[in-house]
Automatic annotation (TrEMBL):
This is Homoserine O-acetyltransferase. The record marks 192 as: Important for substrate specificity. The keyword Amino-acid biosynthesis applies. It catalyses: L-homoserine + acetyl-CoA = O-acetyl-L-homoserine + CoA. Pathway: Amino-acid biosynthesis; L-methionine biosynthesis via de novo pathway; O-acetyl-L-homoserine from L-homoserine: step 1/1. The keyword Amino-acid biosynthesis applies. Its EC number is 2.3.1.31. The active site is at residues 142, 235, 237. Belongs to the MetA family. Coiled coil: none annotated. It holds the Pfam family HTS. InterPro entries: Class_I_gatase-like (IPR029062), HST_MetA (IPR005697), MetA_family (IPR033752).
Amino acid sequence: MPVTIPSALPARRILEGENVFVMTPGRAEHQDIRPLHIAIVNLMPTKLATETQLLRLLGNTPLQLEISLVRMASHDPRNTAQAHLDAFYQTFDEAAEHKFDGLIITGAPIETLEFEQVDYWPELQQIMDWSRDHVFSTMHVCWGAQAGLYHRYGIRKYPLAQKIFGVFPHRVLDPRNRVLSGFDEVFPAPHSRHTETRAADIEATEGLDLLAVSPEAGVYLAASSDGRELYVTGHPEYERDTLKLEYDRDVARGLDIEVPRHYYPADDPTQPPMVTWRSHAFLLYANWLNYCVYQRTPFDLGAIGAMASVTPDED
């Protein structure tokens, strides 16, 4: 949350130079507060686990959030009880009647398929088109990031000779971007994927900014220049044992799977894994909620889609 200080205080210029969010009393007086409405399009087969992971990160903020869970009507989930879906999820047709401050589109374990081969691809395209006028800011995660970049900008994904699997160090490219406020210059984050989005394709695309990359894992963060789209190619929401469970499952199936890198102490899978990415995961979601959503979304949700974007630092 911002610090309110006098406009003429010398510390203001120093803090702003460090990308610390400060607010003048004049702007603070005009801050309107209400719950933020966040929709989650959950494409993961393990819906209950994904719900917990995302809500844990979203809940680490003083902002009050109202969450709507959305499922695809064009796909029949096989790993989640119908009673759970009926009790807690809306279809897109039901959610489409409303507007939201924020939207999260999750990953899905279908990245080796071409987008057009995914049974719910037309419905997901419809959601992404709908979000332009019904959502203020959207976070796309893992396969959801690849899907968003492909649908909105024509940026393709490329198959990898070897799966990117583990927790990798990433370098901040644009420390002035609000999404990266408070980040260390190098920070860890988990990946688990068979395909990649290439940095050169993002850098060559007008309206997109490359924010963080890894020498080993490649692109991690990108965003639209207006801050209304955030693309996260990794899995900051992963829990301590998520990669372990995936590794153990594949070993039990007899698959040729490498030990996830930089995850176990000394890369020894007989040792319990260590969590090194949690603080930056919380920070990423808090920054997105604060700077891309709360500080910019209109107080009247009905105005989304009918107004020009305001800059996050407008006083």
